[in-house]
Amino acid sequence: MDRAGHAVVISSVSGGGKTSLIHLLTRMYPHLETVITATSRPIREGEINGVHYFFYSRDEFEARIARGEFLEHATVHGNHYGVPLDQVRGKMDQGKSVILNIDVQGARRVKEILGDRVITFFLLPPNRPEWERRLRGRGTDSEQVIQHRLAEGLRELEEARGYDYRIINDVLERAAGEISVILKEREVLH
């Protein structure tokens, strides 16, 4: 493996299991590092600023965009999300590989900037009923928000074919295993 690290992008629909999968992969491979995403959305109960996200007001987030501080940023479900550029480049330049939880818009941008140092995965929900069950099971969103996330997710599913790999996330451990095999073949994991 070369000295430069890689960026592993994990995308999915809302409720597709991105966060759970990333937690499992980083437990399995502690040297695969996460990068904390920034957002302008309100903090949810149980979340900690600087641990789950960097929480910024809309004005502060937009000022950071203007200063070019994000590798990628997008507005998703009415809120800004972005990946701090300094965190990603710093880790990759040290030869570390990072795993990023990024939506479909952001994944395209990351691929443009980092090129062949990026490997993209799209997690597919096993089926629509299971996808809806997962969204409702979180208990964090109103019915209106759930319906919006489902409609947005249908558009995102169309983007899945543009990813390097598509993985069905029916059983979390199996999906993590499939990704692990690919990352070992690509010499990201050892």
Question: Can you put this structure into words, describing what you see?
Answer:
- This protein is α/β, with parallel strands linked by helices.
- It has one domain (7-185): Rossmann fold, CATH 3.40.50.300.
- It is 43% helix and 22% strand.
- The strands form 2 sheets. It has a 5-stranded parallel beta sheet with strand order 2-7-1-8-9, sandwiched between helices. Strands 4-3-6-5 form a 4-stranded mixed beta sheet.
- A hairpin with a 2-residue loop joins strand 5 (70-76) and strand 6.
- Helix 1 (18-28) crosses helix 7.
- The longest helix has 17 residues, at 143-159.
- The protein is globular and about 45 Å long.
- The relative contact order is 0.22.
Offer a few descriptive terms:
4-stranded mixed β-sheet, 5-stranded parallel β-sheet, 190 residues, Rossmann fold, globular, 9 strands, alpha/beta
